[in-house]
Specification:
The complex is a heterodimer of chains A (511) and B (394).
Chain A: H1 4-15, E1 28-38, E2 44-54, H2 71-80, E3 82-91, H3 96-99, E4 109-116, H4 123-138, E5 150-151, E6 171-176, H5 183-191, H6 207-210, E7 215-226, E8 234-246, E9 258-259, H7 260-264, E10 277-283, E11 293-297, E12 302-308, E13 311-319, E14 335-339, E15 346-350, E16 360-364, E17 397-399, E18 403-409, E19 436-442, E20 446-448, H8 457-481, H9 494-506
Parallel strand pairs in A: 1-10
Antiparallel strand pairs in A: 1-2, 2-8, 3-4, 3-7, 4-6, 5-6, 7-8, 9-14, 10-13, 11-14, 12-13, 15-16, 17-20, 18-19
Chain B: H1 2-37, E1 44-51, H2 59-74, E2 82-86, E3 121-122, H3 128-136, E4 155-162, E5 165-166, E6 169-172, E7 176-179, H4 180-192, E8 198-204, E9 220-224, H5 248-258, H6 268-272, H7 277-280, E10 285-287, H8 301-304, H9 327-330, H10 350-354, H11 368-385, H12 390-393
Parallel strand pairs in B: 1-2, 1-4, 2-3, 4-8, 8-9
Antiparallel strand pairs in B: 5-6, 6-7, 9-10
Helix pairs in contact in B: 2-5
Classes of the chains: A alpha+beta (511), B alpha/beta (394).
Chain lengths: 511, 394
């Protein structure tokens, strides 16, 4: 009876307001995406993006039903009246010179920038409380954010979402460069995903592989976006992004072949049932300077082409919701293989042996047109034995000039000539075919200033040592080996007798 | 006739006696069960696990703390009831050859860092002040919930500390110390504020027994890895990682705890025997005089696990399909349409930036010092020249 009463109450609550049931289409949706980009340096970059869009007005009171949008973040938006929130944790640095431009770069450490709504009265107080709450959610020391490391930018960091006016008074920005990102920050980040780490692309997020990378950046971005093309109403968008760069030598053991299993030690088994779209994109734009072609296995059914970051790129698309690609019996393990054309270079190097033979380096290079090729060699300077120096060592030492033997294409085809009938200046080098001519060029010799020792030092050392030996040892030797006798003074002398004479005359006692 | 009457009477007396004994037996069984149910007197468990050392060569202290964290989580205490403080990051340290892992045994058998760790206080946040604030509950109001010790008077708390210590103190991050007197006073504050039911304090440092010498609050049991004057030694180095992986005492405690499951009846006396001098080189010590119950009645899971007394019911309750709460959104959908279309902000509006005026600073009325200075000047002026001279000015 007592149990039946609450049961009855519960049923009443469910049936109470509204009337007959009408199934409401879900107002939030999830799209997940993984982009795999082979980088020019042989490494591979993987960028995950999980985007939840919620067609709702969060600023109203009474929102208590959360489905895909995480409740922790939804409550933050309504409590602190946020317009936008961008939080990132990064380890490492994106090397644009070797890897190309990134999709979204973040500074090393933790970065937090927030736009508040214009209804907020005390922005600094909300900012401080917000950073404390975020430090609890993400297990990071964001509570160290205070007025000493917060700024209000006046020109940059415009809102990335929909905005009608931008009064920079409501913007706050802070960076904590000392912040470390590790599994304890990844775990709550994964828990915000609707499928957690159980299905879809998030099964690949294993900490022991994700942190064994040259660059790891995970971020949370919340902003309002246009709901439709006319942009008459807004939805809230939550994007969780994670970018990693796997090192070719550390993870790949020097080989340039990649697969999902090699990178993440997992393969994709099933799509996230809550996702409306779940795709993997692989960048198959070929890198022409190496003349290599990229082969992707399994072959993609569709490709996507667009101008990304200023260049035209082609992507192979794999849709996880396609049952032909991935189902209960098949996993998806993407493999990337590089096919190189046969090499036509040659290198011969013979290292030097001290006092026996010099270095010899021979290289055969194909120079591309309209380009500059630099060849540089590092060397160290060593000291010679002091007898091996020339009498004028401060002049320097010479390194023999380099030789360039080249086959230069001719503008006009030449025909082989009879050696006896042509002038002598035309028959220096034999001509095999007329399309190019042979030339041998030399560089200047290199004059290297070696550190020279101070050649006067042996002389100085000998003098000093002999003086010390003579003074010290000699004195001791004399003291120990000489005997001393008392000598009687001699009786007189001429000078003494003369002196006594003068003294007697003066009245002074004699000597 | 009389014989049967007597026999009958004896028989009834015997039956009555048997019934009485059965009744009392049943009553005592119920009493036993009730006593079992209320034996320990606690209703929830908390754990505060602190590693106080910084720098790569103190890897073993982080491994110690994470081993206890792992055992405590395995035996049932959830992350929301664990306050984990690690003074340095070993797992993602650039010197770690296997990132995102912390190993407790050589040959890399057991990764105690795991995939599901939540560190509440990390790096520079592990200070003596924060530790004492966590214990006593005197925390700034903006502290998130995961960083608080929200225990009550029916909580059993496990406090584990490890690091470098000496006679009467424990070093925090090589820059400050906590003394045994401060710790004893903090526990007394906790007792006065009724923040614990029973407390188990384990410390694995050199001369660890000195840290529990000064406790004076009731219901505290303490264990230490070494006596005053002895050093706690580390267990074994690992040639691949290059540092010692664990301390001996915690290594053997971890081995002991790996055999405990939530239903085990092992008691504290077994924990006191865990690391004899032959294995640990130092002499572990313990202190039970402040504890009211006998240690042999105290289960390991009273402190290391979170054993809930649950009652399982087999009734079923059926829930209705997809609630009516969504329908309330329907009628509000109309008023979200705005009149004019919105647009995205321009990310780098050069013209607007160049021509923006600097914001005028808010005017604040002059403060006390300036007002006082001006009042002084004006007073001196009037005293010198007098009011009657003012008519020449105006």
């Amino acid at each position: 009876m007592a149990a039946a009463l609450p049961l009855a109450l519960v049923v009443l609550l469910l049936l109470g307001p509204g009337g007959p049931a009408l199934a409401e289409p879900p107002r939030d949706s999830l799209r997940e995406e993984l982009v795999i980009t082979p980088l020019p340096s042989g490494d591979v970059a993987a960028t995950f993006q999980f985007r939840t869009r919620w067609d709702s007005e969060l600023q109203r009171e009474g929102v208590s039903h959360y489905r895909l949008f995480p409740k922790a973040l939804g409550q933050l938006i309504s409590k602190y009246s946020l317009r936008e929130l961008h939080l990132s944790f990064t380890q490492g640095f994106w090397r644009t010179r070797y890897w190309g431009p990134p999709f979204l770069q973040a500074p090393s450490g933790a970065e937090l920038w927030v736009w508040f709504q214009d209804t907020v009265t005390d922005v600094d107080k909300s900012w401080k409380e917000l950073s404390n709450v975020l430090s609890g959610i993400f297990c990071a020391s964001l509570n160290f954010i205070d007025s000493t490391n917060t700024v209000t930018p006046t020109a940059s960091f415009k809102p990335l979402g929909v905005a009608n006016d931008t009064d920079h008074y409501f913007l706050r920005y802070a960076v904590l460069p000392r912040e470390v990102v590790c599994t304890e920050n990844l775990t709550p980040w994964k828990k915000l995903l609707p499928c957690s780490s159980k299905a879809g692309l998030s099964v690949l997020l294993k900490a022991d592989r994700l942190f064994h990378t040259s660059y790891h950046s995970q971020a949370v971005h919340i902003r309002p976006v246009c709901r439709n093309a006319r942009c008459t109403s807004i939805s809230w968008e939550l994007r969780q992004t994670l970018s990693v760069v796997f090192d070719a030598f550390v993870t790949g053991q020097g080989k340039k072949d990649w697969s999902l299993f090699r990178m993440f030690s997992r393969t994709l088994t099933e799509p996230c049932p809550l996702a409306s779209e779940s795709r993997v994109y692989v960048d198959i734009t070929n890198y022409s300077q190496d003349n290599e072609t990229l082969e992707v296995n399994p072959p993609p059914t569709t490709t996507y082409q667009d101008v990304i970051l200023g260049t035209r790129r082609t992507y192979a698309v794999y849709d996880l919701l396609d049952t032909a690609l991935i189902n209960n019996s098949r996993n998806l393990n993407l493999q990337l293989k590089w096919k190189k054309p046969p090499e036509n270079g040659y290198i011969h190097y013979q290292p030097a042996q001290d006092r026996l033979q010099p270095h010899l380096l021979e290289m055969l290079i194909q120079l591309p047109a309209n380009s500059v090729t630099k060849v540089s060699i590092q060397f160290e300077r060593a000291l010679l034995k002091w007898t091996e120096y020339t009498p004028d060592p401060n002049h320097g030492f010479y390194v023999s000039p380099s030789v360039l033997s080249a086959l230069v294409p001719s503008l006009v085809a030449a025909k082989p000539v009879d050696w006896e009938g042509s002038p002598l200046f035309n028959t220096l080098f034999p001509v095999s075919d007329g399309s190019s001519y042979f030339v041998r060029l030399y560089t200047e010799p290199l004059l290297v200033n070696l550190p020279t020792p101070d050649f006067s030092m042996p002389y100085n050392v000998i003098c000093l040592t002999c003086t010390v030996v003579a003074v010290c040892y000699g004195s001791f030797y004399n003291l120990l080996t000489r005997t001393f006798h008392i000598e009687e003074p001699s009786k007189g002398g001429l000078a003494k007798r003369l002196a006594n004479l003068i003294r007697r005359a003066r009245g002074v006692p004699p000597l | 006739m009389a014989a049967t009457y007597c026999l009958g009477r004896a028989f009834t007396a015997l039956a009555a006696l048997l019934l009485l004994s059965f009744g009392s037996f049943a009553a005592s069984q119920i009493e036993d069960q009730a006593e079992q149910f209320f034996r320990s007197g606690h209703t929830n468990n908390w754990a505060v696990l602190v590693c106080t050392s910084r720098f790569w060569f103190n890897y073993r202290h982080v491994a110690n703390t994470l081993s206890v964290y792992r055992s405590v989580k395995r035996l049932g205490i959830p992350d929301s009831h664990i306050v984990l403080m690690l003074a340095d990051d070993m797992a993602c340290n650039p010197r770690n050859p296997k990132p995102a892992t912390v190993f407790s045994h050589k040959n890399m058998e057991l990764n105690v860092y795991g995939d599901d760790v939540e560190v509440d206080y990390r790096s520079y946040e592990v200070t003596v002040e924060n530790f004492l604030r966590v214990l006593t509950g005197r925390i700034p109001p903006s502290t998130p919930r995961s960083k608080r010790l929200l225990s009550d008077d029916r909580s059993n708390i496990l406090i584990y500390m490890t690091g470098h210590g000496g006679n009467g103190f424990l070093k925090f991050q090589d820059s400050e110390e906590i003394t045994n007197i401060e710790l004893a006073d903090a526990f007394e504050q906790m007792w006065q504020k009724r923040r614990y039911n029973e407390l188990l304090f384990i410390i694995d440092t050199c001369q660890g027994a000195s840290m529990y010498e000064r406790f004076y609050s009731p219901n505290i049991m303490a264990l230490a890895s070494s006596q005053v004057g002895e050093d706690s030694l580390s267990h074994q180095p690992d040639p691949a990682i290059g540092v010692h992986l664990m301390d001996r005492y915690t290594f053997y405690v971890l081995e002991f705890l790996e055999e405990i499951n939530p239903a085990s009846q092992t008691n504290m006396n077994d924990l006191f025997q865990v690391c004899p001098k032959s294995l640990c080189v130092s002499t572990p010590g313990h202190r039970t005089d402040l504890f009211q119950r006998d240690p042999k009645n105290v289960l390991i899971t009273d402190f290391f696990g979170s054993v809930r007394k649950v009652e399982i019911t087999t009734e079923t309750i059926s829930l209705q399909q997809h609630s009516e709460m969504e329908s309330s959104f329907k009628d509000n959908q109309m008023d979200e349409e705005l009149m004019e279309p919105l647009k995205y902000a321009e990310q780098l509006p050069v013209a607007q930036i160049i021509h923006q005026k600097p914001k005028p600073k808010d005017w604040h009325p002059p403060g006390g010092f300036i007002l006082g200075l001006w009042a002084l000047i004006i007073m001196v002026f009037f005293k010198t020249y007098g009011i009657k001279h003012m008519k020449f000015i105006f």
